[in-house]
Amino acid sequence: MLPQIVETPPGPKSLDLARRLSASECAGITYMAPDGSFPVFWESAYGSNVWDVDGNRYIDFTAAFGVAACGHRHPALVEAACHQIHSLLHGMGDVHPSRAKVDLLDALTAVVPRPLGHAILGQNGSDAVEAALKAAYLHTKRSGIIAFVGGYHGLSGFALGCTSAGKFREPFSPYLTDNVTFLSFPRRTCARDNHDEMSLNRALSAVRQRLSDKYLPPVGAILVEPIQARGGIVVPPDGFLRGLRELCDGVRTVLICDEIFTGFGRTGEWFACQHEGVIPDLMAVGKALTGGFPLSATLMTPEVAASWPKSPGEAIHTSTFLGHPVACAVGASSIKLMQTLAIPLRAARGGDRLMQRLRRAFSGSPAVNEVRGRGMLVGVTMTNGRYGEPPFQVVNRTVTAAMRRGLLILPCGANGDTVSITPPITTSEAQLDHGVEILADAIAEAVT
């Protein structure tokens, strides 16, 4: 369905909930615009539509942070959740596991590239990255880590230590490890010159230099997103992942691919590393794994998995909700659904249409610097406003203007200069086209 606005967002019910939430939640969590123009409060969602508490209907170009790849509240996932809730709501994942945990791991290891056949489950992306970094150290006994500027890997512990943005790091800097080296992430361009090759060579040369530096802790892991999602939908030049893989081969350094956002078909392959035929030593997945329940996983090769000591009765890495039965049941159903719907193929085809539509809409626009992405992971980068306002201000105004028109989008990028477009992969052509029209109108309003 297309949008339907019955109360100018945010409506009175959203405003009342904002007042109540502000009174009870820590102010550092949910953004509340000082003028009351943001956010709206969701009431329900289905497919590619979201309804707020005032009855407004939106097209969702966020898929709720990329989670709802098959659409919100897909009947197959709801049925799986309800069935599991009626039989076993909670289990003891590392003591007396549930059947659902085994079914989930069977389904998961069937779709990941071999030899990634062993897993540790978590509840979110940070959990998956934390487990991957622990596994890397157990396997290599090396504490040095290479991560990349613009990379986002979560906000807890080791994961925060590998996330480059100062706004997340600085408040907690005394707790963060100093064993992480941040290197430049190369950026693919549309220019017909040798910029991509030069960018690629510089990036790989910097990695090579760090690997050979004898004055810093030896590098045990290279942690990389195949495409930087929250960092601005930054696609590296072809050959970057292959180059990292080659630099890791033959030395005691593992390659970790953070596929939390890019995994499960979002970019047109089951996993974005497959665009270059690269198989990492470890891979972190989450978000679209369940389509709506907290669940993540760290996949690893048999060699890395063998570095973990066999559990003597109490695991050295676990949690109360590890392998939660309901999340696992929904995850297994979600993977089957993605296979049935041919989600990677739909993302490739839908992404081509979306990219063409966006580039046509903004061709020659002074407000838009670039449209980039892969599959249904797309970014629209903005320029300065008409009166010299920085791009992040233009993006923020665009997000609010689009919301008032019935389109949900998010900002992204290290400087907040990019509109992130990650709709459910099942979004219809009519919804995609209408969403692009709303986005164009919102940008026109934002720059005037």
Protein described:
It is a single chain. The protein is 38% helix and 15% strand. It has 448 residues and is α/β, with parallel strands linked by helices. It has two domains: 12-60 and 343-446, Aspartate Aminotransferase, domain 1 (Alpha-Beta Complex); 75-340, 3-Layer(aba) Sandwich (Aspartate Aminotransferase, domain 2). Strands 4-10-9-8-7-5-6 form a seven-stranded mixed sheet, sandwiched between helices. Strands 1-2-3-13 form a four-stranded mixed sheet. Strands 11-12-15-14 form a four-stranded antiparallel sheet, covered by helices on one side. Helix 3 runs antiparallel to helix 11 (325-340), helix 4 (99-111) runs parallel beside helix 11 (325-340) and helix 12 packs parallel to helix 14. It is globular.
> Whole-Å distance between the termini?
30 Å
Assigned CATH class of the largest domain: Alpha Beta
Stretches where pLDDT is under 50 for at least 5 consecutive residues are none
Which homologous superfamily in CATH is the superfamily of the largest domain? Answer: Type I PLP-dependent aspartate aminotransferase-like (Major domain)
Taken in chain order, the helices and strands follow as HEEEHHHEHEHHEHEHEEEHHHEEHEEEH
Instruction: Report the biggest beta sheet as strand number plus sense, adding barrel if it closes.
Output: 7 strands, mixed
> How many H/I helical runs?
14
How would the global form be characterised?
globular
If you consult CATH, what is the topology of the largest domain? Aspartate Aminotransferase, domain 2
Mean pLDDT: 96
Strand ordering within the main sheet: 4-10-9-8-7-5-6
CATH architecture of the largest domain: 3-Layer(aba) Sandwich
- Rounded Rg: 22 Å
Strand content: 15-25%
Number of strands: 15
Oligomer: single chain
Number of domain modules: 2
Helix content: 25-40%
Structural class: alpha/beta
